[in-house]
Amino acid sequence: MKEYHEINLDEEPCIFPDCGHFLTTSSMDGQMGMSAYYDMDEEGHPTRLSKTSEPFSLDKSGIPVCATCRGSLRNIARYGRIVRRAILDESTKKFLAWSHEQYLSLADRLIKEEEKLAQGTAGHAGQHNTAPSGLKGGQFIGSAQRLKQLRELQRMVGNERYDSIIELWRQIGRHAKNVRLEEQPFQRVADLVQFANRENKASREEFRYDESVVQVKGSLLADALLLKCEIAILFDFHRWMTRGGLAQAETEVKLDLSAHWSDCVRLVEQSRLRKYVREEVQGHIFAAQLCGLCLSFGESASMWSANKGAKKEQTPDSLREEALSHIQQARTLLSQYPSTASFQGEIDNVEMLINGGIYRRVTAEEMRAVYSAMTSEFSGTGHWYTCENNHPFTIGECGMPMQEARCPECGARIGGQNHQAVAGTRHATEIENLARGMNGLGL
Prior knowledge:
Elements: E1 14-15, E2 23-24, H1 25-32, E3 38-40, E4 46-49, H2 80-119, H3 144-157, H4 163-178, H5 185-199, H6 217-242, E5 255-256, H7 258-274, H8 277-297, E6 301-302, H9 316-336, H10 344-354, H11 364-372, E7 383-386, E8 392-395, E9 404-406, E10 413-417, E11 420-421, E12 426-430
Parallel strand pairs: 5-6
Antiparallel strand pairs: 1-2, 3-4, 7-8, 7-12, 9-10, 10-11
Helix pairs in contact: 2-4, 2-6, 2-11, 4-6, 6-7, 6-8, 7-8, 8-9, 8-10, 9-10
């Protein structure tokens, strides 16, 4: 290793980070892996970007730092793109872990609310729950009419039965807003760059990124949980109605489920597009449940809006046909993907309803079984990977793959043998002690 006085700075310039340690440009370029991200000329200078951004692309060293003291390299313009790209990767991982934790917390609370409805203990004083950390903000977009409908059901029941579960529904809605595309790190940076260019009247190229870096699972899970919560209220209201409650009501029941139906269709389509089969199965179940609700409420409930789609006629036969189609699609997915087996009971129950039987709600134990397998997906105890369809997961213990398995989302091969990952699996950096609450992502 050369000493500083031995280096000809005209031929081999040096780079001096804030920490005081220094390396020659060629050594620092090698340490930073410049050739992996830029096309280099014969003299070792970068000429252009060599590839588009990929999720978790800095998969070995994390955010680049000084090799001697691990000091920051953020102020070195030559490596700014690489450092900021790594920061975005880390922010995306934290976003995933945070949204996943919030979802599981809300899902557990929904189970408890459904238990209270089943036991007839819902709505009593002292049972209101406060929003978990990070769930702040205004009412989510498009909720006004649906909230008004829920409040009307509450008024007809005539007590505080739905107070706490409606508040939970609103919190799930706010969470759904917080995990949308526009809240994800890459999209937020793209929006900031666009705003800065517009303010400075600059003609710079906009910030672009590979769409595979956008993680939609959090949004799909939130949408599914929102539908599940609202459908639980509707089924409970139907039980109240069939037990003689309607005779005490002052007004006629009139339900508009067209927005719920649109959400179901969108959930199925987006899940199928991104190969999230568990969420796709849930979308089919919700669609069949909505058909069952319309059949149960008769002419008092409408599902297909003439203004939002081609289907304008709603008859018992058409509803049964639609429901059975979704049930069949859900069963097909169950036969193809073992990770969806926990939804078998829900599918059986809704099919019984469609065929004229009595709808039996899934027990709390069955619902917890659905969520229990998800608790370790982003445990943060090892290294991060993505399968060939860009579904992220972590490997614990030493963090290296020791056995082959199947991605719980799409069934693709994951893991590996003897620390060697299978083809198509992308290795991402180790993360531990992830932030458990993020009111924002300071990039």
